[in-house]
Amino acid sequence: MQRRWLGNHSLEVSSIGLGCWGMSHAYGPADEKESLATLSSALDMGINFFDTADVYGDGHNECLIAKALRHHRKDVVIATKFGFVGDEHGKVSVCGRPDYVITACEKSLQRLGIETIDLYYLHRRDPDVPIEETVGAMADLVVSGKVRYIGLSEVSAETLLRAHKIHPVTALQSEHSLWHRDVEKTLLPRCRELNVSLIPYCPLGRGYLTGTVKSLADLAEGDYRRGIPRFKNDAMARNQQLVERLKRLSRQSGHTPAQLSLAWLLAKSPSIVPIPGMKRRRYLKENAAAAGIQLSQALMDELDALGRQVSGERHNAQNLLFVDQ
Ligand SMILES: NC(=O)c1ccc[n+]([C@@H]2O[C@H](COP(=O)([O-])OP(=O)(O)OC[C@H]3O[C@@H](n4cnc5c(N)ncnc54)[C@H](OP(=O)(O)O)[C@@H]3O)[C@@H](O)[C@H]2O)c1
């Protein structure tokens, strides 16, 4: 497995990381035994970059990672996030208050069973708290040794710059894939300018770009994707054209649609490290192999052209409100 540096030569991680969200929540039923086996196999394959968050399964995901990786602390880079909070009625909001940053970090450290978080992200910007205050508290965590490096998720280029002035930001995690390319307009250039790595989340379009999800019938009851406009039946049917073209390129090149999706991201910049979500061992080898694929310029051009017309929003209306524009 190839390696890449995050930020300004801060953290060295496998070129492909592992998104762990689906192991606790979101994409069909969780299976703890299989999740633990997946985490262990990922390590065996040289994947050392594990992505979680306090909100994934309400702490379950961090505990799962602790269970799987506790004997490999020195070999792994653990990234987690804070910021989403729920009230007793289930209403979700974002909190970036400095006192909350400290409390959330303590809780994540306890669940993860570690003394220092390698990369600590603000999951979403709190619109009521200046970013300088939130990042100031994150910087204090670095000083006190609770966190090694800091990151932000789904913020604008302007917010990234303001945050970076307070403390160097090592990584920005945002949605980026063949069917969602907004970050390429202003964020990717800003990341290059500031030496911030881009960590694309949902690099496989929540599974859609792999060609295995064609209609709502392919998704379990309660699957998170059922609430996303892009996964409504009409939009999914229209977006099949994109997947069909991706499948054609896949047949011609000898790589799977998932591999093309990941190799295309890796080719965009040497500081991009995608974190495909996998809750089963089934796709590990295939996705890990994408790190070694070199795409020709002609194939890059064809892939670039794919996502020009995508139907449906990528988040539901509520979650779009949390995205910093
Ligand atoms: N910062 C944020 O706000 C944010 C938001 C969303 C996600 N994330 C992070 O990003 C990670 C990745 O995103 P994601 O998991 O939402 O979406 P994703 O990586 O685009 O897609 C995950 C889905 O693709 C399936 N899959 C993986 N490899 C495949 C292959 N080769 N062939 C067919 N299907 C394949 C997975 O199946 P199985 O589940 O069956 O293995 C899963 O259903 C998450 O796990 C999480 O850590 C962050």
From TrEMBL:
Organism superkingdom: Bacteria
One Pfam family from the record: Aldo_ket_red
Any one cellular-component term (Gene Ontology): cytoplasm
InterPro entries xref list: AKR, Aldo-Keto_reductase, NAD(P)_OxRdtase_dom_sf, NADP_OxRdtase_dom
Ranges where the NADP-dependent oxidoreductase domain occurs: 16-306
Entry protein name: Oxidoreductase
Molecular functions per Gene Ontology: oxidoreductase activity
Phylogenetic lineage: Bacteria, Pseudomonadati, Thermodesulfobacteriota, Desulfobacteria, Desulfobacterales
Gene3D superfamilies: NADP-dependent oxidoreductase domain
Keywords annotated in UniProt: Oxidoreductase
